Amino acid sequence: MTGVLQRQLRDFAVAALLAVAIASAAFVVVRNGDVVDAQLELAQRSAHAVASGQEALPTTHVALVGPSQSSTRHPILRHRDIRQLGEAADRHLDKLFYDAALRIDREHKGAFVEMLHDGTGRAIAATTRDHGPMIVVAVTDVAKPAPYPLLVMIGVLGLGALLAAAGALVGRAAARAGTLTGIATLAIPALLWHAWIAATAIILLAAATTILQRAELTDQFSSGMRRHRVALGFLAPVAVAMFVLVAVPFVIGIVLGFYDHHQGTWTYVGLQNFRDILGGGTGGLDDGTNFWFVLGVTVLWTGVNVFFHVTIGVALALVLSRSWLRGKGVFRMLLILPWAIPNYITALIWKGMFQGEYGAVNSLLHAAHLDGVSWFTSWSTAFSANVITNTWLGFPFMMVVALGALETIPKELYEAASVDGASAWQRFRHITLPHLRPALGPAVALGSIWTFNMFNVIFLVSGGKPGDTTNILVTDAYRWAFERGDKYGMAAAYATLIFLILRLLTILGSRLAREKEPA
Amino acid sequence: MKALLLALCLAACGGPHGIVLWHAYNGDERTAIEVTAAAWNAAHPDQELTLVAVPYDAFADKLSSAIPRGNGPDLFIYPQDRIGDWADAGVLEPIEFWVDDARADRFTDNGLAAMAYHDSLYGLPMTVKSLALYYRTDLVATPPRTTDDLMALVPMMKAKNGFALAYANVDLYGHAPWLHGFGGKIMDDAGHLSIATPEAAAAMTFARDLVTSGAVPKDAEGPLIASLFNEGRAATVMSGPWFMADIAKDKDTGAYSVPWAVTTLPIISATGRPAAPFASAEGILMSARATDKDTAFAVMDFLSSDASAITRAKLAHQVPANPHAFDDPAIAKDAALVVFERQLEHVVTTPKAPGMRAVWTPYRTALGEVLAGRAEPGPRLLAVEREVKSYTEPK
After folding, report:
1. Is a pLDDT exceeding 90 seen at residue B149?
2. Is the domain covering B17-129+279-349 a CATH 3.40.50.1980 domain?
3. Beta carbons of B219 and A269 less than 8 Å apart
4. Which residue among A118, A269, A377 places its CB closest to the CB of B372?
5. A205-218, pLDDT tens digit by residue?
6. Ordered DSSP codes for A224-290
């Protein structure tokens, strides 16, 4: 019997926790809504009363504000007469009265009412007077919201627990009726506050719990939780972090792509942003703001970089893996250095080195009696400067991966191949390469994604020069957000497209890798 | 929604906490603002003013995102060009309520006008910055009065593997003196774009000719310009008051190791009109979410007073927006400050309309292409105007 009761109360407790959270949220929303409505109405009524010649309402401060008059010495400056009604004038309110009158004049609407944005819960209303140029402004006192109904919540919780327990003691169908009515009891406060959505949600929760209980799913869930307690405990913080830091921004980013942002207001525009982007914008195919042009640059950028990363990385790894090489540790450390330095610092150093007059690269060219290159005035040189910088940054990773893979190749294979008379190239082609492939495959996929989105190098080295033509998709998205009139919607749509492109690439990549894998 | 906002407000509402001011100053300017802040704190121990230095690159974005959520500073120092944008977005507190004639008398008319937008005043000006012409007194005997005088320096400087003039020529801010001197502009008084005009094309052609004739280095930026000037490879430099910090100094004595002076920008020989740079007033502005607005204004008032302006002019060579600051003998003797003050007679205030923000990058791109000889000024300017329009109009 105690087992049944225990199980009943366990299910009730879990559902009740959710129900209380729903009811509390409903209370805060409804209570605050009521306070706001009451304050807004009070301010409005008081202002209208004075405007039609009656007394101001209690707990409000009302003033008559005169028309704006330009200063004779400084026409930019405008002032107004402010006359507070009632006995105790609060001079700190004059600024509020002044600004409200300014807004009435500016918006030509005749009246407005709103909550002040200072967190005090005060409302302000302003209206023009029936006669004369004066504007009436009313400000309410600070709001006093109703306290949280703790006793009511404890009461319904107790009643609900009692119903659930009683049902369990009777047994069978009564137990489920107990669960249903016990949890549904918690909808009573929400019903009292006219919070219909919350009440419905709680009743649905009660029904769902009953159904789950009947199918014994609550038992399974509970025992599962108990069995994997430790694992779940360890996973929980990461799950929360992933949810907050990855899932939420990801969803928000995708949603923003369907909106247009213009001077602080967001408008739903459907697929318009995507149409604009994929349509290429106003410029032709050789225009730096055309999506297809930027995509072309990005693909070329990724391809060239990854090619250099892999060839240089593998070549260096082969040299470093030679047994006759002395001072391997030192070389290895030196070659990993570019990877260890934060990439934006490296990018800034390279940018300085490519500088036309005083940069190290041109100084070297001059020293060799060659003409200096104006690196950022033509597309090919600017693009090359970016590629050189990113190659410097990217080869160590491939080298390390290749080095690791080389260590795992059994020496006997090479010995056997030598005995069979294989040339160095044949040994490389038929032993080294196939053994490198499983390790290099994922590294190339990862490297491609990094390079595809290598914001720092493009932004800091060429900065898109000349004329926005060396931008890649991710730097172009940045420019939409921060340099082209705050078009955050366009930037978000760009980000979504980048995601889709990369997703496609990784799916294709893993397909290819699987097909090539030896059976 | 309103209810939720109120709930958040009620939760976040705290007590009085003194005044927090954000600035992006470095070096001498930072020292100067710290000295004036210390003076306020000494006189008002119960209303502490806390300075927070925020990097300039991140400044505007941080403000735009923090203030509407009720965070951010009470006050901040920023040039006037974002005022329109921020006033429209409800980030700024209008302050004309507190400013009477006596206070306004303190400032130059264009300094005060730079802080106004749509019939309201949003800040008190601290300094007005514009470009002027620096020159090496060892290379240039008499300062060039016209652009022809400037071009006359070319052969002599070419012989030295140098340039007659160095300035940030691919940047609209650097190019603006020619643009205005040829009669062009970015937008009219009502904020309507006026980019693609024959005058603007003429100015761009002039800038390109400067490059092709070898009078100026192509694609010059801050550090390069300073190096050229310090090495005697640029006879003149068009830059602002901040350039004084880049002029080479002797390590031991701290005195300038390069002979230099500064003069107003030359007259454009082709039009007979003076080259007119953008004037950008830097002011102290109040957040619409400042907690104690009366005290915050008192701090604004204090920091923009004549005494504070004199301190900043002395310590950081900031050109005061307060004409009476020049009554101070030390400042009246500062030749560079006096020249920058005189340059303000021929300037164009940087437009405050929100659309201006979308102009800088496309214009810069166009300048880069035209100066490199890859595009013609006329059609390129038309493309800029089209591009800016596409950014500033809602979908």
Report:
1. yes
2. no
3. no
4. A377
5. 999 999 998 888 88
6. HHHHTHHHHHHHHHHHHHHIIIIIHHHHHHHHHTTEEEETTEEEE-TTHHHHHHHTT-SS-TT-TT-
